[in-house]
Here is the input.
Amino acid sequence: MAVDYATHDGVAVITLNNPPVNGLGHATRAGIVAALERAQQDPALAAIVLTGAGKVFCGGADITEFNTPKATQAPLLGAVIQALEQSAKPVVAALHGVAMGGGLELALGAHYRIAARGAQIALPEVKLGLLPGAGGTQRLPRAIGLARALDMIVTGTPAMSDTLAQTALFDKVVDGDLLDAALALARDAGARPAPHPRLRERAIEQPDAAACFQAARDRIAVTAKHFPAPHKCIDAIEAGVLKGFDHGLAFERECFVALVRSPESRALRHAFFGERAASKIADVRADTPTRTIARVAVIGAGTMGGGIAMSFVNAGLPVTLIEADEDALQRGLATIRKNYDATLRKGKLDAQAATERLERITPSLSYDDLTHADLIVEAVFEDLGVKEQVFRRIDALAKPGAILASNTSTLDLNRIAAFTRRPQDVVGLHFFSPANVMKLLEVVRGEKTAKDVLATVMKLAKTIGKTAVVAGVCDGFIGNRMIEQYIRQSLFMIEEGALPAQVDRAIEAFGFAMGPFRMSDLAGNDIGWAIRKRRYREQPQHRYPTLADRLCEMGRFGQKTGGGWYDYQAGDRTAHPSALVDAMIVAHAQDLAKQTDIPRRELTDSEIVERLVYALVNEGAKILDEGIAAKASDIDMVYLTGYGFPLWRGGPMLYADTIGLAEVERALRRYAAQSPNGDAWDIAPGLVERAAQGRRFND
Ligand code: NAD
Here is the structure.
């Protein structure tokens, strides 16, 4: 039963009972209407209480029914709210725990509301690119005033019931038994003559409404540049203020329908569900027992090790940080201290919290100190020989059942696991730099990684605030394997006629925070150089553009050497196009044009964007084909959380779905045919097959 019905001394009590959050699925909606009807018929009843079973009043829509016919089956939420509002007997909504989204809109339809102290009140629809579509934009301003409602609806931020106690939202906020208090209020209300108060009839008193709307619009001008929903929230509230409740309600519905269909909302919902889906692994049951992780050891206090240690201590887990040499250890600790100092200065952390975090780190030069660790994360040099030594020592010392993780970016995790006598306990934890900041964590599943190890690290990822995505073993896993193709295309394009600044400008206009050349200059061009040198040995059949090597031969490693693809002035990260480098690129391109008989030509911005993004898509399709990623949304999560792919486009795979895979394939074939580097396009069979069948990556 999604809704329970009982009577208490002349009051009907309707209880939402749809665990875990009393979501407003079809059975719940229909149940409320039926219960209201039943209460009207019973002459012994004078009033009605609407409440929620368990820990919350109502968390809003039932997400398990999204995209199913039940979501749109009558009665819709608007009709349920109307039934509440029109009830001849007064309805008291009793809110505890959480009243969010449709749950709050439902309560706004009641005649009276009472809340438990500490209940979370929110209309978070905007976070999914929507607006409250069942009267929330009209009734909330009438309950809590225009300025506050604008803030809550436009940002989606929850407020505590206590902070709204003085508003017309609540007749009472109570500490004691909520149901008792609700019943008392209902009896009082039942004794009063009709009509009972309805929010739709309340005026919105705000003498400076126009200024309020302007201020709200100014606040979102930058942050919501690519998102229509916050703007629509303001428009809908304004419509109600200027033209009245009924007009506002109709306009709100119109906006809702348009937003549901918008690519931005689709992208945000994709990211929301993608994050949840990423935490589930098809063959690892949700009830798989997990191992206890109370103590962590991190080996290597370099760029990654320090940030990884910070991620754990920030979440309250003690870390032993082990280094091979004293100087490196002191350098690592100094960097960690500097990072906390910077956070302190920005006011994001207080001095005591920073000290506590630092104190949770125990520095050490001895591997003997890892014997108590439940999880050991290796972050030493990227060299298989060094990893072998380290893993053999860990294996000899770690306690039974400890999880042994490697942060390797490119090495074969199965080989690393084979250095131990317990490959089932070995897993890849691929953090991104800076590890204490970046949300993405690729969890690399080795051939022998045990299911409970996977379940444990997925849970742990949540504890330390990371978005974990499982990847199979391959060079570069999901993210770096795809970015390599993107960078390769960027290099081909400057050989064919573009310049770095044009490529960067085009892809930044698409929405990436930083184009490939600025990114390379930031990360250090020598990193890619080292990888390419290895590729030349290991995969001589793969052709690489040589311009990047020339740049490195000139010692132009990027920002750190004062110049890379661009010139930099000391102490300034602004990229200035380099006359020297651009001339080198043009000369190189002209040489190539002579050799290939394909003239150097101008590239349009749209070609640049397509070639870069479709390079990601094509490699992503191969990653799906090979089962390195289990689902397209996992790839999208990697790109949204780790690579700055524009959120409003939902990730490369969703973006390709939006364009249409047949169109993507046509473009790829066109580029393969026309460019002198066409042979670099090796179109993924999975892309071709889906395109032919009219399917999508995210089906
Ligand atoms: P780094 O050179 O900054 O740090 C490595 C540290 O390991 C050094 O401080 C070194 O003294 C220490 N070390 C070396 N051998 C050791 C041993 N036997 N025992 C204990 N400590 C030892 O390197 P990094 O950039 O932090 O990379 C570490 C690992 O993380 C590599 O596998 C790398 O591929 C991976 N990774 C790096 C990045 C990145 O952006 N830098 C991102 C993801 C993953």
In short: Residues 299-305, 322-325, 328, 379-382, 386, 389-390, 407-409, 430-433 surround nicotinamide-adenine-dinucleotide (CB under 6 Å). Residues 479-554+584-693 form a domain with the N-(1-d-carboxylethyl)-l-norvaline Dehydrogenase; domain 2 fold (CATH 1.10.1040.50). The chain has a mean pLDDT of 96.
